[in-house]
């Protein structure tokens, strides 16, 4: 998929995570993209290792969004302190 595709997927996943996570998250464009890329990477590693899905399946999007929400929740708790 390449770097551009990874960044685009990361941005979409980051926006979904920010939309689904309650609260006021003051993340900019770059941090939202990094959040999504981190969620997608973590979901890819965990999901493939546990055999939940293969590369390119739709479940990867769902898992990426869930992991991005988890990362966002942890990030907001750390920043609040």
Automatic annotation (TrEMBL):
Family to which the UniProt record says this protein belongs: Belongs to the UPF0410 family.
Keyword Amino-acid biosynthesis: no
Taxonomic path: Bacteria, Pseudomonadati, Pseudomonadota, Betaproteobacteria, Neisseriales
Keyword hit for Signal: no
GO CC field: plasma membrane
TM spans (from-to): 27-46, 58-78
Predominant cellular place of this UniProt entry's protein: membrane
Protein name as catalogued: GlsB/YeaQ/YmgE family stress response membrane protein
PANTHER family for this protein: BSL8023 PROTEIN, UPF0410 PROTEIN YMGE
Subcellular location: Cell membrane
Topology of the protein relative to the lipid bilayer: Multi-pass membrane protein
One matching Pfam family: Transgly_assoc
Keyword vocabulary terms for this entry: Cell membrane, Membrane, Transmembrane, Transmembrane helix
Superkingdom classification of source: Bacteria
């Amino acid at each position: 998929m390449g770097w551009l595709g990874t960044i685009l997927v990361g941005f979409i996943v980051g926006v979904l995570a920010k939309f689904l996570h309650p609260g006021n998250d003051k993340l900019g464009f770059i941090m939202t993209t990094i959040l999504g890329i981190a969620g997608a990477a973590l979901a890819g590693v965990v999901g493939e290792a546990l055999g939940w899905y293969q590369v390119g399946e739709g479940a990867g999007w769902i898992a990426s969004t869930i992991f991005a929400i988890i990362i966002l929740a942890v990030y907001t708790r750390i920043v609040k302190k």
